Amino acid sequence: MGTVDRPAPDPGAVSGAGAQSLSDRRPRLEPGSDALNPDTWAGRIPHTGGIAPRLRVGRDKWFNVLWLLPIGFVVLITAVAIGKGLHDIPAVQDFMTRHPGTTVPPELEAHPGFPAWVAWQHFFNLFLMTFILRSGIQIFVDHPRLYFTRNCTPGKEWLRVQHRVPDDPLWTAKEDSVGLPGQVGLPGIRHSIGLARWWHLGADVLWLVNGVVFFVLIFTTGQWRHLVPTSWDVFPNAVTVLIQYLSLDWPTENGWVAYNSLQLLTYFVTVFVVAPVAILSGLAMSPALSTRFTWISKPLNIQLGRSIHFLVMLWFLQFIVIHVTFVVTTGALRNLNHMFGGRDDDSWIGFGVFMVAMVVVVLGWVAATPFTFRHPRVVQRVGYALIGPAQRLFEYADAEPGAYTDKDISPYLWHNGTYPDSDEYKKMFDTEFRNYRLRIFGLVENPAELSLTDLHALPYHEQTTQHFCIQGWSGVAKWGGVSMQTLLDLVRPLPEAKWVVFYSLAEGSDGGTYYDAHAIEQMSHHLTMLAYDMNDAPLTYGHGAPLRLRNELQHGFKHVKWVAAIEFVRHFSEVGGGHGGYNEDHEYYGYRQSL
Fold first, then answer.
1. Cβ of 544: how many Cβ atoms within 10 Å?
2. Type and span of the H or E element at 70
3. For residue 561, what is the enclosing H or E element?
4. Residue among 546, 480, 537, 588 nearest 198 (CA)
5. H or E stretch covering 483
6. Is pLDDT above 80 for 14?
7. Which of 136, 157, 262, 584 could form a Cys-Cys staple with 579, CB 3.0–4.6 A?
8. pLDDT (tens digit per residue) in 500-523
9. What is the pLDDT of residues 238-270, one digit of tens each?
10. How much of the chain is helix, strand and coil, in % rounded to 5?
11. What global pTM score does this model have?
12. What distances in angstroms separate CA 231 from CA 92, 237, 265, 268, 486, one per listed residue?
């Protein structure tokens, strides 16, 4: 990685005299809409459902996960039979007598019950989790494949809910996405990852705040004793409880004082292990953090983080199902009074509060999708207000060069975007871009038109970096070309230039030129460049020939391919729809996407 000196470009390629004519050449832009029309969404992308989950076994065998339903039923029935047999063995009964299943610390016996804030926290957690899970599933199916390594090579995924990748060299990640029923995913329409991420990340922030408050309160009030084992006896006691459940002789201890040991271990793992892992695995998918902390992101790569994040989601789903099942089947009224009524009796008060809470949850669930369709800009703005500060903070995580070498280069890098098909582009492609000119204009001292020959004459910059697509796939490639700092030195931006807009030779999915805006301070970053080489060869058509942007602090959709022009502006609000880019205008992405 680095810069190699080459002969300077022809001075005639840079001229201040052309400033006015160049500034008048902003491409045709489409502003986007402030409401989502499912019929015309994302270039009228058709609804394509997924398939039953397939788990890879060996090199190329796939197991239909739905078979786990009858297999699981057989295993459960067998376990019940074994549990009943064990329960009647004298030695086992003696073991269960010595380890009755529940131990009550003196502090809990002296102060039983739960304060009102526990009920409120429980409700907020439930309410937020509905949005987190729905949007999380929506995000997953935008790239419906999971891998353990950063190389997202087709056929190497360990789980997929989509058919095999077709034998099409220009098959895109967008084409590979699948849809979900409207009231399952959020917002419930195919390739809606921009809005799904706002729901997911925004709800995550609120869930994290709720969790911090919860942690502070349980440790300052002593309620932690309900969740944290204080003796190794919890393990033999948990075995007793497991035998009781499997033998259908369910324990009837009063959770108002203390949970049985199996509950205690489950709650402890969920609160103190799984929840933090959810946060850490989510951060592992951040391009800015992964690029900066490569000593972590190389072993805990984005795909391993994504797979762990998915497994965490499955944990929460099964926890909710099992938790609700036992609440209902082990004394519903008493349990609901504990959780929602703050009392230990069999009255209907807790049930009434629970029903009110369920009405709120169901209304939120049902209203989320139509609200998103009618007010996507509200979702975009509120989402950015919640997660934006963290996005901006992570952009300052400066990366160290040299983290990846040639041996890390991925064997396959997915294609994406709408390919250019204009007569202008075809003509340039057929002549090996001899007539191509990169236009640089706007708030600069020296507007420029640079041919590929001019660009090749500038100091050569090379970097091997990991690509992070917002849809979830990744890969490592070597990029060669010109650092943006070299171009900044050439055209000399004016002080009032704060944003840099890159225009593509390709259109977006709804028509109009594809473009994206970047903060000018990121243009000086040592991993921001215009690439004309990829893996020691000229860029291909599918990967952005003749020129593409690399800004390793951001997700891939901001790395504009087939670059036609660069404009320096005061603020991106004066360009296109004013939201910072084509996907920001049309599909409600964020103009900063470092997470």
1. 25
2. helix 68-87
3. none
4. 588
5. strand 474-483
6. no
7. 584
8. 999 999 999 999 999 999 999 999
9. 999 999 999 998 887 678 888 999 999 999 999
10. 50, 15, 35
11. 0.91
12. 21, 10, 11, 13, 64
